[in-house]
Amino acid sequence: MPATMSEVDTLLTKKVANRYLKRELLGEGTYGVVYKAIDTKTGQTVAIKKIRLGKYKEGVNFTALREIKLLKELKDPNIIELIDAFPHKGNLHLVFEFMESDLEAVIRDRNIVLSPADIKSYMQMTLKGLAHCHKKWVLHRDMKPNNLLLGSDGQLKLADFGLARIFGSPDRKFTHQVFARWYRAPELLFGTKQYGSGVDVWAAACIFAELLLRRPFLQGSSDIDQLGKIFAAFGTPKPFQWPDMIYLPDYVEYQFVPASPLCSLFPVASDDTLDLLSKMFTYDPKARISVQQALEHRYFSSLPAPTKPALLPRPARKGESRPSEFNPLDGPIVLSPPRKTRRVMVQHRGLDGNIFQTDKVDDHANEATDRISGRSETMPMSIDLSVFGLRTPPRPTLNSADRTHLKRKLDLEFPSS
């Protein structure tokens, strides 16, 4: 009796699945797990991302399909290669080229000394990969150090395109709940639904700053606290700096705080480095430098030349969480815009646990502060918390509050892709 089509498909699926021999667990993400494996047909080491298909309403199918579709079109030396994709036992398996480590491991490894040439090389490869995405009208929307993978030859490649989207159509709206919070552009934190490549540029600037400081640059505990960290570093934006800011959906007015000199935030950075950072950290997304313009900036043509990828330092095996730093200075006070009735003050705690710089406000304002700011204990700049025996703040992900809402948003967005 001849086999049915479904039986043939099952046999083919098993045949493909049996081709790969799993070795070890590499990590877990929002929608699945990643394994190291051997391709028994070629002997090549690969990474297999196993995604739980779930039910239609969960949107996981759409996320995986989008990643497959985009990676098939994005072929570049600085973008991860998708080798194969197949379903097996209720899961979708994506087979990628194997990468030894990621940029977060480099930043965290205290045995590695990053020279200006090394940092320039990492940033050049990051921006080259991002430039290819933007040339193909793709937003990455999840730029962060552990999504920048490093191969055995030192090459850096952009990975994890589960949140990526095609952009460029006028009036198209997207969810603003993308990127880990520390890498979100201010327009996203103010709730914009219409944005372009500038959100990736801001995140790349945060990664640039993290390479220079060897720690996350701005560590907010909530969206309003993240904005406070940004404004404390770069100053509260004035209307001429960002005219459209007051029209954003979640806009709230912040008390004016003057900008800190960039050279005080990055004391060892060169003038070219500071100039590029200032252009990437521009508040108005319309005035923010593009990725291609950033690659053409004099920072990359001046000495020292970028280190060749093969000569870049290699990270050790991933260890425990790295130390975080903080500076006990107040962020700016948040003021309600005219259409709001409450006054919000963000309060912070000192090292002894006592709240400092408090003002007398009514109970309603205190409740709003608790609810909105989450009583943040981390500050814009930081010192090594480990010397005080304190626990470092967890790196934000999209696994908690944003996850359910994001899944629903991805479901709604997918048909228009």
From TrEMBL:
It catalyses: [DNA-directed RNA polymerase] + ATP = phospho-[DNA-directed RNA polymerase] + ADP + H(+); L-seryl-[protein] + ATP = O-phospho-L-seryl-[protein] + ADP + H(+); L-threonyl-[protein] + ATP = O-phospho-L-threonyl-[protein] + ADP + H(+). Transmembrane segments: none annotated. One of its GO terms (cellular component) is cytoplasm. ATP binds at residues 26-34, 49-50. CDD domains: STKc_CDK7. Belongs to the protein kinase superfamily. CMGC Ser/Thr protein kinase family. CDC2/CDKX subfamily. The keyword rRNA-binding does not apply. It comes from the Eukaryota. GO terms for molecular function: ATP binding; cyclin-dependent protein serine/threonine kinase activity; RNA polymerase II CTD heptapeptide repeat kinase activity. The keyword Kinase applies. The active site is at residue 142. Residues 20-300 form the Protein kinase domain. Keywords: ATP-binding, Kinase, Nucleotide-binding, Phosphoprotein, Serine/threonine-protein kinase, Transferase. This is Protein kinase domain-containing protein. GO terms for biological process: positive regulation of transcription by RNA polymerase II. Residues 310-334 are annotated as: Disordered. Pfam families: Pkinase.
